[in-house]
Design brief:
This protein is of the alpha+beta class. It has helices at residues 2-12, 22-26, 37-50, 76-80, 82-93, 104-110, 128-141, 145-153, 164-177; strands spanning 54-61, 67-73, 113-118, 154-159.
Amino acid sequence: MSRLILLLVLSSSLTAQALPSPGEHLGYDLGSRFTLHANLVAYARLAAERSDRVTLTEYGRTAEGRPLLYLVVTSPKNHARMDEIRAAKAKIADPRRLADGEDTASLIDTTPVVIWLSYNVHGNEPSPSETAMNVIHRLATASDDETTRWLDEAITIIDPCINPDGRDRYAYWYNGVKGR
């Protein structure tokens, strides 16, 4: 019985630190080769599974069937009040929605800013998706004051690859000829 309790405690106390770095996950240093989209997606899914700061949404598929996805990265506290934050953003965007006694200035002061980071729009841009994995890892795992403040005061939406089909065409080509 005590082993079961210990296992439950250990499994429930896994933190974002359980998310390996992109290099550890992929088995090579970022920048030493171009990561294929499927491996980028696998890392994004792993981040969403292992970090309470990350949620993942698939919003479509490309013409070649690759998933299009975005991650929402913020503090667990902000994740828990996402509906309230959306409602506040709608009121800031359209003050006609304000209730009596509400004002946009106070909503702006108390509502996290939303930041959208989109990577790899052109297929032959090799580094953006590699960078996206580093950003995901930092926001999902770091516990320094700067990152904690960022997570509390911002909701970061990350689309790690807008053009997976073009990226994979380029990555397959480059990875195949780089040694020549």
